[in-house]
Write a structure and sequence with these properties.
single chain, 8 helices, globular
């Protein structure tokens, strides 16, 4: 995975805010899309922690995450960062399509979701990227 490139993609999609704000669900958030929890006492290194957690969570859903095409790793990780594992793990048909290396079906399953309606610009960009994957 190209961590440097993925950082930049998430900065673009999440935005960078050095103050606490409420996300689209009304949850307190800061930095680069970091959901604030009661044990967060400072904001230093939150993004790096979130990146590591995101990648670890991707590996829990996709056993072969590290051998997927880099573009697919970025797409899945971007979705994981945005939704978290409980929500992304419900994308059963997308997972099956990715496991089968059927990028067009995976892209279709991404569009057939509440997530795609909540973050339409981000979703459509990621869908187009998934459609363009070739191994």
């Amino acid at each position: 995975m190209n961590i440097k490139q993925f950082r930049e993609e998430l900065k673009r999609d999440e935005g960078v805010k050095n103050e606490v704000y409420l996300d689209h669900l009304g949850l307190p958030t800061c930095g680069i899309g970091h959901l604030i929890t009661e044990w967060d006492t400072e904001y230093n290194e939150l993004f790096e922690k979130d990146l590591a957690t995101t990648i670890d969570e991707c590996r829990l859903i996709y056993n072969d995450f590290d051998v997927l095409p880099v573009k697919v790793q970025h797409i899945v990780a971007n979705m994981m960062f945005n939704m978290g594992r409980p929500r992304l793990s419900r994308f059963h048909k997308m997972k099956k399509a990715v496991d089968n290396r059927d990028w067009f079906e995976a892209a279709y399953e991404m569009t057939d979701s509440k997530w795609a309606k909540q973050v339409p610009e981000r979703a459509m960009r990621l869908v187009q990227e998934m459609q363009s994957v070739s191994e």
